[in-house]
């Protein structure tokens, strides 16, 4: 993929020497770059293919709250990595708003600009989302979301949803190639999510594989009537789960030539 199709979006209240240096180095690496204030309207106005968000902390982290929440949602829904630059306190404050599995790396000031840009460049080169199959992972466990993303992100574009409601919200405007769905979740559980998927015309045929700890016969039989593509257990070895996802997409590819 051509990395110049990506833009690095720097989100910063202050545009001083550090920001100017970052802009220059990012451009030298072959990316477009824009700097916006931590303002939802400014961030949402960026329509280019964003390769990464780079959030620069400041003393006024509290004033960035709404922007950080928006960036968190965009990162999860569009699989956009987040990097941060700031003091330890500023990075900690950002991390309390944005889930740790969405932030690829924290950089503490004073920062080596060359190293920072090299890290972002290497990440996009390896995990850039263009042309990859989209896998929506739905689980209320942040640890499980981090694990599955780590297992799959070198092969697939991995989008994370930490609740059934968030998954339905994502599906209303996006179409993944596969949903990996937990069974036991609060408020809206996996069975209810699958029922909603199957009853909505727009995405009723989106394939779903359960990835869950529920292995009792009653739970399995309740959802098999809704025709999921498979039922995997979290206790399986990661290599087995990866292989099952790969095998699903191989079967999908084979159908195209039947």
Walk me through what this model shows.
It comes from Roseburia lenta. With 258 residues, the protein is of the alpha/beta class. It folds into two domains: 3-127, 3-Layer(aba) Sandwich (Rossmann fold); 134-256, Rossmann fold, CATH 3.40.50.2300. Helix content is 43%, strand content 20%. The chain has a five-stranded parallel sheet with strand order 2-1-3-4-5, sandwiched between helices. A five-stranded parallel sheet has the order 7-6-8-9-10, sandwiched between helices. Strand 8 (178-181), helix 8 (190-199) and strand 9 form a beta-alpha-beta unit. The protein is elongated. The mean pLDDT is 87.
Relevant terms:
phosphoprotein; alpha/beta; Rossmann fold; Stage 0 sporulation protein A homolog; 43% helix; CheY-like_superfamily; single chain; 258 residues; 5-stranded parallel beta sheet; 2 domains
How many strand units?
10
Taken as a percent bin, the fraction of beta residues is 15-25%
Number of helices: 10
Tell me, what's the shape?
Answer: elongated
Give the number of domains: 2
- Rounded Rg: 20 Å
SSE ordering: EHEHEHEHEHEHEHEHEHEH
**Looking across the biggest beta sheet, what order are the strands in?**
2-1-3-4-5
Assign the CATH architecture of the largest domain. 3-Layer(aba) Sandwich
Structural class by secondary-structure content: alpha/beta
The CATH superfamily of the largest domain bears the name Response regulator
């Amino acid at each position: 993929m051509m990395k110049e199709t990506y833009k690095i979006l720097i989100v910063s209240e202050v545009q001083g020497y550090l920001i100017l240096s970052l802009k220059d180095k990012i451009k030298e690496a072959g990316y477009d770059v824009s700097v916006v204030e931590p303002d939802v309207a400014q961030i949402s106005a960026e329509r280019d293919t964003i390769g990464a968000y780079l959030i620069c902390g400041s003393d006024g982290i509290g004033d960035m709250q709404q922007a950080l929440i928006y960036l968190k949602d965009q990162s999860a829904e569009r699989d956009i990595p987040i990097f941060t630059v700031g003091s330890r306190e500023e990075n900690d404050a950002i991390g309390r708003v944005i889930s740790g599995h969405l932030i690829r790396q924290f950089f503490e000031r004073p920062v080596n600009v060359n190293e920072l840009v090299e890290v972002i460049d290497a990440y996009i080169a390896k995990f850039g989302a263009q042309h990859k199959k989209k896998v929506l992972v739905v689980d209320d466990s942040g640890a499980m979301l981090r694990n599955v993303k780590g297992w799959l992100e070198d092969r697939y574009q991995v989008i994370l949803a930490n609740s059934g409601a968030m998954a339905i919200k994502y599906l209303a405007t996006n179409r993944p190639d596969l949903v990996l769905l937990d069974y036991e979740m609060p408020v809206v559980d996996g069975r209810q999510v699958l029922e909603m998927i199957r009853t909505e015309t727009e995405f009723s045929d989106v394939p779903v594989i359960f990835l869950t700890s529920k292995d009792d016969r009653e739970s399995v039989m309740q959802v098999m009537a809704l025709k999921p593509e498979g039922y995997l257990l979290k206790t399986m070895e990661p290599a087995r789960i990866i292989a099952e996802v790969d095998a699903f997409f191989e079967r999908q590819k084979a159908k195209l030539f039947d």
